[in-house]
């Protein structure tokens, strides 16, 4: 498969199904889009809350809109502007809203928001992350009078909670990019006096509607669908209330309808109404299969329908046991990215239309990622719903920095987790709740588990924290930089690659001829120290892609199917370049597999190859790292990433032989001489059968520009806020991209659009500029639509090249102050990967042989710690002399592998000898790794295995890992007993081959 060509040809319409609108379109609509018609002032003018205040000179904006969003990627995270900004809006209630309840919902305000209605203070929200809302009923003027809502925001990094004077741990300028004001959507609800509540607990004290499935039968495609909706009666008399539930599939067909029991609610009483029914022929939500249903919960009062709440959700079965994650009865190994929750873009920050989130998040799925771990704070609802649609599993944090905390700061974290669970528990893509970006105490973990079990007891989700390797409470765990294994709860790495590299740099032989690793650092660690070696943070694309594959190998080697103790995978940090802390020469983080405009780097295509499958790789594939447009005389090493067993390289159809295989997926071909034409990699299985190939052709000289567009399915909306991506390529006279082109491009926009620019290396990263260079022959800009339907003409020119132009037609939409057009309306689901496969989860690769005891003449009482399935305990030889230990196996076995985790695994090599029943089977030094090492030898029959240290361990800095704090993890080394810590075994396992 020609992966690059396929990727570059996609726009956004790729095998999508139409979906049902998430909100009904009846005349008595109860939910309104409240994003349009706001005014903005940066500063703190006196009396801005008053209805008589003159805001005519304020800027006109539509939400979502962060007041400092134009600084995204121009300023580093420390330089993003902070301070007070006010938002104001005037509006009328609908004609038929008298005697109705009116609620407002903010999906989030950063950091603090004070809400005033008609000059009266309504309330304050301060955590800067979570959705919140207020009951506005008694403060509003009836139709046709004008109402004024004013919102004061403050995004100071040092903002303190008013009541306690305590800051928020996650309002941290290392991790959480500070886009201030109202960067998320706002909605208005008009409800009857008996109504289904909103899931906005901290400010309204209500929990909303909970939809979940139980009693799954995956093979028979059935489950029990349950609806529990909190209903409040604000009439002055009792009512008889009942739920009528309808389930509608993605084709708009009602597949079920059922009633709850009838309940009596007293005046001002709140009660949960419950209904359930067995449904057959269900389509289960899965990875890359965002099949969603609309569950309509209709409230009947005295047998009359008074309101309807529509929940867009999916149904899936999960299980977390034996060190593995099960989705719909099939094991799935976690493969994905630790992405900044801001998920931001140049010039607009996080405040992008819903479809742009779909585009970005679906790219993760197309790279064969199945999990996104949002980092540090709860993601925006818009991204959560997007992951539902694209079939991307999520790990949802509450909020923290990188440490457990006490007192009010811990209470803030539990309150945020509670609110986030209640708000997001209907979203099927969330499989993990993350209680901390660092380990927390067992007491705190128990509190978090109680919150989950109280508010989401049936959601099929695991709650845990980073690390928690010896926790008896956490339901999953996993370190940040290293590999962990478990026979109990799943362990997956929460972020395992920190390297950075600018997309502009192919290799050392391509303009601008960036020498691998050079560039230094503009960054200081938070403890004030400078990074001593910045080379991993200034990679070129070749080195960055290779490093990502090398890092993944350790997890793949210990995947499900390799024994009783397994790794459940991990997530690479990060997916797209981020406006957060960085270590390299540029002022933003470049760890992404795509750049900030979501243009892929070679890392992206490498992941497509190595992650193609649920556990094992399903389809053989290959990707040649780099391009094939060099100057004559250039000779360079070529690396092919492939899941084939053997790879052969051809230049102009002449074979250069078979590659040297490394880390399973890397095939290396040294000193390949460039010759114009083609370079082709052909992959074979063990029998010699051709199973895949990848070919790159030399492009001709730059001849012309080629424009293409990526826009909202159905067309760009004329709402003053929608965006379109316009891509420019420098191509030869046959239309092939010129991969070494760096030409400056001038854009001109005419009609109903505004150029917002893109990003490139240069002054201010070219943020907001209408002229910027291509990098590696391609770049992109954002074009924002005005609020008038019409044509946007985009022209691109460059000196010496044929120009190009493209048109976008914008579509009229409802932009009233109470709009009936929702931000995510009619967005399709991505279902290309299809339902969960019915084939076996994985292939067993070897047979584990259990240990029943061990003998040594030092620290005998600790020997069990070396095989206790607890990576925070270890045995080591605590005295001078012959450091050795002998293990007794459960039976006589044909041992051919020893798998060990030795303390100091990333920096120490131990010279050891292994004997089976007294026969030497291995002698040599253990390699460095991210945790475990596998030592192979000729199968040898025996029941006792001796490990002996032959000399002193050797130090190495080959694996360069440093935290942003400047801390270097000691990887299990016990510093207090360092002088007598010999042969420190954290875990050891023995295997025999399949019979």
How would you explain this protein's 3D organization?
The protein has 995 residues and is mainly beta. It has eight helices and 59 strands. Strands 50, 51, 52, 53, 55, 56, 57 and 59 form an eight-stranded antiparallel β-sheet that branches. A six-stranded antiparallel β-sheet has the order 4-3-6-11-8-9, with no helix packed on it. Strands 30-29-28-27-26-31 form a six-stranded parallel β-sheet, with helices on one face. A hairpin with a 5-residue loop joins strand 38 (678-684) and strand 39 (690-697). Helix 3 (354-366) crosses helix 4, helix 5 runs parallel beside helix 6 and helix 7 runs parallel beside helix 8.
Query: Low-confidence parts, pLDDT < 50 over ≥5 residues?
Result: 1-28
Report the span from N to C terminus: 35 Å
Count of helices?
A: 8
The share of residues in helices is: under 10%
Mean pLDDT: 94
Could you give a short account of the major beta sheet? Answer: 8 strands, antiparallel
Shape assignment? globular
Gyration radius, rounded: 29 Å
Computed structural class: mainly beta
Into which percentage range does the β-strand content fall?
35-45%
Oligomer: single chain
**Number of beta-strand segments:** 59
